[in-house]
Fold this protein.
Amino acid sequence: MKSSSKHETNTNFLSGKGFNRRNFLRGIGACIALPALESLKPFQSLAAVTSASGLATTATGAPLRTAFVVFPNGSIPSAWWPKSEGIDFEMSPTLQPLAESRRHFQLMGGLDHMEAVGGMDGGGDHARGNSVFLTGVRLKKSATDIRAGVSIDQLIASKVGQTTRLPSLELTCDSVRKSGGCDSGYSCAYQYNISWSSAKTPVTPESNPRLVFERLFGAGTPLERGRNLELRQKEQRSLLDFVMDDARRMKNRLGVGDKDKLDQYLTAVREIEQRIQQSERFGKVKDPGVETPAGIPNSHAEHIQLMYDILVTTFQTDSTRVASLLLAHDGSNRSFSDIGISEGHHDLSHHQNKEDRIKKVAQIDLWYATQFAKFLEKMEAVKDIDGKSLLHNSMIVYGGGNADGNRHTHNNLPIILAGAGGGTLSTGRYVSFGGKPTTNLFLTMADRMGVTGVERFGDSTGRLGAV
Amino acid sequence: MLPPLRQLNRFVPRHGGLGVFPILSVVICLGLGFASSTAQSPPDFKKDIQPVLVKYCYDCHGDGMSKGKVTFDDFKTEEELFQKHDLWLAVLKNVRAGVMPPDDKARPTIDEIHLLEKWIKKASFKIDSANPDPGRVTVRRLNRAEYRNTVKELLGVDFDTEGEFPPDDTGHGFDNIGDVLTLSPMLLEKYLDASKKVVLKVVPLVSAVAAEKMVHGSRFSGEDTDRQNKPGSLSLSYYKQASISNTFKVDLAGDYVAVLDFVAAEKFVDDVFDYNKCRLVFKIDGEEVLNKEYVREGNKSFQLVFPRSWEPGEHHFEVQIEPLTPDEKQVRSLAIKLNGVNVRGPMEKSRWVPPANYHTFFPRKVPADVRQKRAYAHGLLSAFATKAFRRPVDRESAERLSLLAEQTYSQPGKTFESGVAQGMIAILASPRFLFREESAEKPGDGSTYAFLDQYSLASRLSYFLWSSMPDERLFQLAASGKLRENQADEVQRMLKDPKSQAFIRNFSGQWLQSRDVDSVQIDSSAVLARETARSAAANPRENRGTNSNRPVGFGRNRVQLDDELRRAMKSETESYFGYIVQSNRNVLELIDSDYTFLNERLARHYALTNLGVTGSDFRKVTLPEGNPRGGILTHGSVLTVTSNPTRTSPVKRGLFILENILGTPPPPPPPDIPALEEASKGTADRIPSLRETLELHRSKPVCSSCHNRMDPLGLALENFNALGMWREKEQEQPIDASGKLMTGETFTDIRDVKKILTREHSREIYHTLSEKLLTYALGRGLEYYDVDVVDDLVRRLEKENGAFSAALMGVIESTPFQKTRLETNESKKTSVKTASNQLNN
């Protein structure tokens, strides 16, 4: 939709409107075969260092990645859940597209987020479902006084982020924000952000594929990009010194209630500084060898696939090992014209037990699952430095903070854990945990990433048993 | 008046200490007077208020009863109860709105209501009308619109913040609320990038360049094209022969460079390719310098360089296109978009001239002496920082800036100008630019509230009315300390300035949600099918779910909510609101009037084709007698935004009116909404109308308490479908738009409702508008201590016959807008420690 790159100097698939994602993929394919091993070689030595410290590394010395992919409005439970548990479970209708990848993921039942249940707070299950999913805390119900908690991806990134050029990456496919208030008195910040670096600071996700790419690999043509990135960082440094000084002085002048805002600014400045320093420790950016995306594609499917592709490239180049992707905010009322559904997703999800509406919602669930299945296939196809696939050395959560979208329940959430976690996860099964906090799973994942010293997270009651 | 003995028993203290007195909410009938908190002492609680409360509210809200989680006898001390401001604010609002006590209970008299209001304001809120509390606004970050406008004002660059920055978080319905606007590391990176882009776009980095002149494509003329005077490109199709030329005059002999600037353009078509080729020939003074074939290049741009040596006189450029493949299918509108020929020279250094804009930024010649250079930089950056920070910059900051500049321009190969540019980039990245820092004047009499200083006032006025920084005049008035006394005149001037369009667009776009017209998804074919189909089975279109943007059918059915129509709908609302502001109309005309603003497209959409509206411009149109349109409730923008993708939503529409017009939004729905069963009684062969389906809301008391307020209002608008078009029927049944409001008035359709709203509920409309306007102007939500401020605004509106200026000037002259709380040692409390504070210096 919005493509502000004026100077298209390259080949066909960058023409303005219809960015051809097939070609982008083909570009990645080119990356896989030859340069993959070569471009990742430098990281082997780094991985050797980090495996000693146990941070975000597998037993074989490959990077260990974790990502959280979140979809909205729950799902139709009867279509999502298979009839029986275990290794030989029959794939449920909604998850059919994932049948080919069944050996690579586990379907997890009986995981809850009780802090998303209304109770005293009344309405607002979409704001809650959205921001509680990765934080596990009770959100403060207010339109202006925001208070959530640190999300699991940010917690992990704060500990392992220094192993990569970028501590973490936050993406979204939601590029339009509604005006007016949001869900039942909750701030819109809760509904459009899933990653939180502190209780008051959401980490704004990026929705424009081009801008993400440029942040990772630099702006301009593949030839200019690397150098542009370096120059940019050097200039940023001296600027940051100056504005840091300004901010400190301003903070001293301001009243108590305002200091938090300046703290956000100061924190942001420090993070950028640290990122630049870190980046410099890693030497020159390895160019991924694919074209920069033109912008936000017109179709939702293309947008989603493009973001998935960027995740693959990011992991493959070891630019980061922690990511989150918000496919659409909880409460999303998007319509899906390519599968013939013109009503809004959210409105349909309140199906009042009408057959035809249930069917349509199940189709949307299926659509999202189809997109995710393609992502898993790509992750499986890319070889990592230890000879295993990217997917093998990852832990990808695919889920949402609402279970039954019609009744706004938050127990037995639809959650998939894809990837073998470097061989430590028991994939290929449907297992039910009988009503444990989802945060227990997150703690377990944090353990795998080498995070230590974290006793509790959100509403956790311990680690999750056999994962 | 002593309460009867029987009732006294209820006041036996529940906890130790003082007795706890249950407070009951009092009903205020709509449209009646309201008390002001003037000089006298507050009514006595035990004597005046308590008996009233006992009589009307205690049944549900005291003595163990706590309906709606509101109870008044759960406290230890009277004072503790009085301090529950949230509770009393809710009481005040609900009672004024007539929501409490409910319909079927007894209501108190006007006097009793006045008494309660007075008591709440004095005893609970402790409002001192002689010295009201202005509240505190959290320091505000510039939002996207403000950043864009400010940068445009400062440097003349239009930076696309919509495309580059993430959307701003909103609170209380607006995106300029200080508390809510956050600043993440990603956003700061974007600010750094943006400041660099913007500065480097206009600030010259060298002091001399070869002279440059662009001969625009539009200035070429030929057989089919006429020379135009405005700069622009010229599109030459691959498929058509063309020959165009331009004559260019050169004054000085020397070496020049002519750069042919063009784009091989195409209109993308999915999965179809265009194999046409053309030959492009470029001649300079009759000599052919370029003769090349071009195929489809996918919008690739070219700058082809041709050095020449020229004598003074006239020189000619010629461009020719020759189509080479006449038999190929022409599917992608391939064209050579000729931007023009950029002529640079003479290239000899002694002939070089200052770049365009040089003297705007660098009025003098750069001194050679190091100290003088530094002083020059100091002066330039000091001036720019003063403008950018919106107040005079202190000497020390200017020093640091000139040092930063020096660090840059001392490097080998770097110019003085690039050093100054770096300083400017730092200024635009500084929090003093990005945040609107405010200061207060010293009060002198030791009070805790003080007037904002004149620079802060200038910024508040300009960001309120222009969403941008103060201009030269505002700044000068502030500098001489004369802004406050002249603010009324300045406001008039600011409204007349075209920049006030930002206020009209941003305020109404968010308050009336017309901004959302850009993205609302409506399936036109499904919406129109609803009017004719008799049953689901007989309506294949609805079940097929076609692409909403393709026109369907013919006649009325060929309607699509395309970009042009969306823009038109937004323009209608903006023009309408703009008219009310600029012509100072009675604000009630927002709800009911005999006019609207149309262009040809919108007039056609509304089936108002016999009013002679042609062309794409918007103009004021008087509506025919009895026409239902007139007022924002009948605007396409509001009607589509409050609809679902395939049908109207009376609930959303009712909610819109309650929230944004009457200011009495219902509480959120209960957490466990039971699933509704099929409402198919007696309608076996057709889909029930929405009215019939919504009947279910009335049948269950847990639903009806709120839906009785929303549904009738929304149903009154049922004659407008989800595209904002008027219809008489739905599913072949005539539409019944009649109903009864919760306050008792009956109506037959929207025309009646509009009259009822403006005649019987004008006070609520004034109140809501005042609240919204005050929120937007202050950049914070309203608190309990603002209650009197809003009441004053309403009083002023009533006194001045609802003229918009009453609200506008009322807001500007109000205490919260003019003053702020001072930070004293007693008021400093520990701020909430966030994780980031750990890294604090």
Summary: The radius of gyration of chain A is 22 Å.
